[in-house]
Design goal:
The complex is a heterodimer of chains A (98) and B (112). Chain A has 98 residues and is of the alpha+beta class. Helix content of chain A is 59%, strand content 14%. Chain A has one domain: Winged helix-like DNA-binding domain superfamily/Winged helix DNA-binding domain (Arc Repressor Mutant, subunit A). Chain A is built from 5 helices and 3 strands, in the order H-H-E-H-H-E-E-H. The longest helix of chain A is centred in the C-terminal third of the chain and has 15 residues. Chain A is elongated. Chain B has a 7-stranded antiparallel beta sheet with strand order 1-7-6-5-4-3-2. Chain B has 3 helices and 7 strands. The two termini of chain B are 23 Å apart. Classes of the chains: A alpha+beta (98), B alpha+beta (112). At the A-B interface, helix 1, helix 2 and helix 5 of A face strand 1, helix 1, helix 2, strand 7 and helix 3 of B.
Chain lengths: 98, 112
């Protein structure tokens, strides 16, 4: 089995990590502190699990000011935004939408 | 794999222009675009947040299909088709390493 796939399966094998994925799915983004505040896990445990999840490509992070926010790896939302802009571009001279 | 489809109120040649003219690409795809429109040609996309990606054009069929392959990983394919309301554009992006991860994400959430 390819390494990448092994990492995914190992990451998913742990119920705490599945809880974190579920939390991110519900909340969009969250910090380690927010997650440890609402789930029965210490901040250190959350950080460790997030490292495993992001190593498997399931979770990504971005720095927002002083904090790091985590979210599920993009599933095409960036394409939705790009296509919205493309639609606006080609519609620009067509107010009637024809 | 990510697959998106949209119907654009413009004829195919106009949509093709929007997909291949660097100036128009800079309006919707990235902020700074360079594109050598031929198979094997280089493409560069820069975003205002500092992100930069390079790609190689893999297929150019004017008015029908444009494909490029990201330097790091993955491929993007645009396909154009006529539609009663203009042009139907289909985008498919594949990225081998995390495609499976994304497919499995849904299963993971079901188990959570």
């Amino acid at each position: 089995m390819p390494d990448a796939l092994n990492q995914v399966f190992s990451a998913l094998a742990d119920p705490s990590r599945r809880h974190l994925l579920g939390y991110l799915a519900d909340h969009g983004t969250a910090t380690t502190t927010e997650m440890s505040g609402e789930l029965p896990m210490t901040r250190q445990a959350v950080a460790k699990h997030l490292a495993t999840l992001s190593g498997a490509g399931l979770v990504e992070s971005e720095r927002a000011g002083r904090e790091i926010r985590y979210r599920l790896t993009a599933t095409g939302e960036e394409w939705d935004e790009r296509l919205e802009r493309l639609l606006a571009l080609v519609s620009r001279d067509r107010p009637d939408g024809a | 794999m990510i697959r998106k489809e949209i119907v654009l109120p413009a004829p195919r040649d106009e949509v093709w222009q929007a997909l291949t003219d660097p100036e128009q690409l800079a309006d919707w795809f990235a902020n700074d675009v360079e594109l050598d429109l031929r198979p094997g040609g280089d493409a560069y996309f820069g975003w205002d947040n500092g992100e930069q990606r390079r790609a190689t054009v893999t297929d150019v069929e004017p008015g029908e299909r444009l494909a490029f392959s990201w330097e790091d990983e993955g491929e993007v394919e645009f396909t154009l088709a006529d539609d009663v309301d203009g042009t139907r554009l289909t985008v498919v992006e594949t990225a081998p390493a995390w495609t499976t991860a994304l497919d499995l994400q849904a299963s993971a959430l079901a188990l959570a």
